[in-house]
Design a protein that fits this description.
The protein has a single domain, classed as P-loop containing nucleotide triphosphate hydrolases (Rossmann fold, 3-Layer(aba) Sandwich), CATH 3.40.50. The chain contains 7 helices and 11 strands. The longest helix has 23 residues. By secondary structure, the protein is α/β, with parallel strands linked by helices. The chain has a 9-stranded mixed sheet, with helices on both faces. A two-stranded parallel sheet has the order 7-11. It is globular. It is 31% helix and 22% strand.
Length: 278
């Protein structure tokens, strides 16, 4: 075969491969053109494909301390922030498939996820919660489906991933405990896997009490991205990435102070009443 014939055959093979890939992917979906879910942290978003988390996909968040007293608060806060950001983009609600531990509403609200955005479903075991997740992922009006589960096999995670791809709803598996025993979690079809570990708050200047919440965020696996580790601090509206070199330095915070009193009584009516009874 001459070079011209070889080039034509190669072009035909390339075109055939493209057609097969298009058939496998199915018809284009409207949600695929939407922007990814960003974390609002430039250092992290820059390491993720397309600058954020894929929306119609499955992601995993692991608690980072495997101790009986640990309730996975850092992982829970990280998940709440992701859910709140996703709900704000679509004005949708978040289906949260609970374990027996329950949720603390004011705590979620402090990280942006209000009660009006939540639909709670309590499952007796992992099988019930996984069923609720899969059914919830069929509802395209939902912004995100969160499931508190333990171990699941590759087939179960693939079912969740396919359901998320079909509807465009973001799925998130939350493992509050056991983040250090990664081998016990098995292989997952999730596109990303995160480990969230609580970190000490910085010393503060200007007021007494506990400083702003901090956590160590590790991206353990990311399809098409690069793993990494970051120290984040909550500022009341979002995460701030902290410099590792200055993380232990005391921080100052602006505090409102009472204005200097002007000349004359602060409460005129009260002053007149005191004079009348003097």
């Amino acid at each position: 075969m001459n070079q011209g014939g070889q080039g034509e055959a190669a072009a035909q093979i390339t075109a055939l491969r493209r057609r097969i890939a298009a058939i496998e992917q199915g018809p284009p979906r409207v949600w695929q053109g939407a922007a990814p879910l960003t974390l609002g942290v430039r250092g992290i978003d820059g390491e993720l494909p397309s600058g954020g988390l894929a929306r119609g996909a499955l992601h995993e968040v692991l608690g980072g301390v495997d101790q009986p007293s640990n309730r996975g608060g850092a992982a829970l806060a990280f998940t709440a922030v992701l859910a709140a950001r996703r709900a704000a983009l679509s004005s949708g609600q978040v289906l949260w498939c609970l374990s027996e531990q329950g949720l603390y509403g004011p705590g979620l609200a402090a990280f942006g996820l209000g009660a009006e955005r939540l639909i709670l479903a309590r499952g007796r075991d992992d099988q019930q919660r996984l069923w609720a997740m899969e059914e919830g992922l069929k509802c395209t009006d939902l912004a995100m489906v969160v499931g508190e589960v333990g171990r699941l096999d590759l087939g179960q995670s693939r079912r969740l991933q396919l359901a998320a791809e079909t509807s465009g709803v973001t799925a998130l598996l939350l493992h509050r405990r056991g983040g250090n025993s990664l081998g016990g979690l098995g292989i997952s079809a999730a596109l990303t896997r995160w480990r969230i570990t609580p970190a000490p708050s910085a010393e503060t200047q200007g007021y007494t009490g506990i400083g702003a919440a901090r956590c160590r965020v590790e991206l353990l696996r990311c399809k098409g991205g690069r793993p990494g580790s970051w120290l984040l601090q909550w500022n009341g509206e979002g995460w701030d990435e902290q410099d590792e070199q200055t993380r232990d330095q005391p921080q100052t915070h602006p505090l409102p102070v009472a204005a200097a009193m002007a000349h004359g009584p602060a409460v005129p009516r009260l002053a007149e009443s005191v004079r009348a009874h003097a």
